[in-house]
Amino acid sequence: MYEKVVWPERYRPETSAIYALNDIDVAAPAEVVWKLLVEAEQWAGWFPPEDQVKVLGGGTELALGTRYTRVTVGFPMSLHVTEFEPYRRLSWETVVDGDETGSSAYHGWVITPTADGCHVLTEETQQGPFFLEELGHKRPGALYRYHQDWVERLARTAEAEATARAETGAAAQAGAPAQPTRGNAGAVAAKAAQRG
């Protein structure tokens, strides 16, 4: 059994208007998946819908207490990282900029090491009139579909990154010049996405 998100009381799935759970097995170490998740400004490189992410306060990666902004499906949002356990847990609270209804969301990621890499689980709850109207009524199931695409692309990218690292390590041991893993991983991920 895999661990799940630790919910603040007000965001528990049983009392939330909208809830989605997505998970996937990834043939890559938890460290590789973690790095991709905390480099939020780089998400668009492997998950194009998240192309307007900005970490605030001078940092470049998510950390406990980090505030950042993003535009998701056309809506500007402000987020605050509330849980940060390296290589295991990452969660944030979200409000929609300009929303006067008090709507908010809580999104968590849980990474569990496995014999073949890791298991990634993501859960999100949303509350309030804004989310209920936009996702509950106008686009039912949209949150689940969005997150499924996100975890699948995360898995493909992490697996490509792990393969590139392994190839770089093997080449270095054989005396060949090391190749940049980010570039290799991107090419491998692009090929995997074309096949996918």
UniProtKB/TrEMBL annotation:
Region (Disordered): 165-196
Pfam family, one: Polyketide_cyc2
Alphabetized InterPro entries for the sequence: Polyketide_cyclase/dehydratase, START-like_dom_sf
The protein's name: Uncharacterized conserved protein YndB, AHSA1/START domain
Organism classification: Bacteria, Bacillati, Actinomycetota, Actinomycetes, Kitasatosporales
